[in-house]
């Protein structure tokens, strides 16, 4: 599905955090949302996913959801949000249990996404037994089990160490290679944005305004090739120049609380 | 630096380790009881006020033989279980409502704060007027004593379920009822079980107090009667029974915790 945001605004009480954000994400594309901390990236994601009440502007999606879609707007959370008392398979099944699926169909979906995410051998493990990277793989498996139309990823790799992050980025690229889901990917990590996104949406510091949309024309699956390294590095530097000054100001800001 | 002594660091990270010696508690019990026995035998402890351990044991044995042991334990257990179940069920329901619904919380918190500090045994005379001298007044006292701590522990257990798990469940479209059953109830279970440990010990205190005020059977009544007749061996035997009863309850709850909280 195509995702369209028009003049979206949001304020927490008197504190405006988003101001007239307009952009769209085409079917099957990935848009990365970057900006200095406190610029409202996660707020925007929660508005799109219906976890926050919309205040101003319009958020709409166009086109038919993929066949078998149970939850069109589906989150992957920074802190994984796994139920510690459920096994890996049980956590994935939680997203399916309240839908009209036969038991065989449900078990089939769970087994399929666990295999796709490299979790087939861990189906009965509890979250506490898994590394951070494996926990987030469970979060990703749970999200794709409902065959979402739009995937909303809220800093999905930020709680992981650098090496695990690299591994999971490769996994994400290969998963997206199979099922191209429209994705909105919030991150503060420019390397992730440059590696994974078709478009990078740059927001200014609070109140977040749209600063620039940077398109990346190299196909996601080819970005690890050495011949693209220089161009991607340039993009990375360009994005950093765009947000550096604002990040410095945001860093020195004191909150009125 | 070349002429200086090479610097070495002596190990300084020892001690402050959480560890247990398995034999130590048994040895402590043996020493305490042997010391007690010796003090009684040498006349250091006057037999009139403090019986020797072997006299307590024979009092327990006599109770076991004439069957009174089971009458008293049975009466006390029945009151504890009845009162604890009623109080816990009501407390769980109210605590859950207060944890989930804003209105229930707004009304419940001040009401609980006002009624919680009342020593519930003070209400036994009122319950005797309402329900008569029999079992219902004792069970009502225990139920009320169990109710308030259960409300408080259930409410804070529900409140401490991580918000991000609830938001996750909402983002996957689970209904409120399913969120309560699949996320909040299991997430609050550790706090609820910790609360039931406290409420069980309150039930034990209240059953003894209630039986001392008006009952013919039960361990509390037995201890009081023994005191009135200066039968200190029977009195201490009753106290030992209470200690064993408390240990048994706490062991039972540990078993439930082990079974339900394997994921921790």
Quick tags:
heterodimer, A: 257 residues, alpha/beta, Rossmann fold, three-stranded antiparallel β-sheet, 35% helix, 23% strand, B: 264 residues, mainly alpha
Descriptive overview:
The complex is a heterodimer of chains A (257) and B (264). Chain A is built from seven helices and nine strands. A six-stranded mixed beta sheet of chain A has the order 5-6-7-3-8-9, sandwiched between helices. A three-stranded antiparallel beta sheet of chain A has the order 2-1-4, covered by helices on one side. Helices cover 35% and strands 23% of the residues of chain A. Chain A has helices at residues 41-48, 88-94, 103-116, 132-145, 162-178, 190-196, 229-251; strands at residues 2-12, 15-25, 30-34, 56-62, 73-76, 150-154, 182-186, 199-203, 210-215. Chain A has 257 residues and is an alpha/beta fold. Chain A is globular and about 50 Å long. Chain B is mostly helical. Chain B has helices spanning 23-41, 53-66, 68-100, 102-115, 124-131, 135-159, 163-171, 176-214, 219-228, 232-260. Chain B starts with 22 loop residues before the first helix and ends with a helix. Classes of the chains: A alpha/beta (257), B mainly alpha (264). Chain A binds chain B through residues 49-51, 70-71, 73-75, 77, 79, 81, 83-86, 94-95, 97-98, 126, 128, 142, 146, and chain B through 164-165, 167-175, 178, 182-183, 186-187, 189, 263-264.
CATH topology title of the largest domain in chain A: Rossmann fold
Q: Strand-and-helix sequence of chain B, N→C?
A: HHHHHHHHHH
Q: Classify the oligomer.
A: heterodimer
Low-confidence stretches of chain B: none
Overall tally of domains of chain A:
2
Strand content of chain A: 15-25%
Strand order of the largest sheet of chain A: 5-6-7-3-8-9
Largest sheet of chain B: none
- Text of the CATH class of chain B: Mainly Alpha
Q: Spans of chain A of 5+ residues with little confidence (pLDDT < 50)?
A: none
Number of distinct beta strands of chain B: 0
Report the end-to-end length of chain A measured between terminal Cα atoms: 40 Å
Give the overall average pLDDT of chain B: 92
Shape of chain A: globular
What is the second-level CATH architecture of the largest domain in chain A? 3-Layer(aba) Sandwich
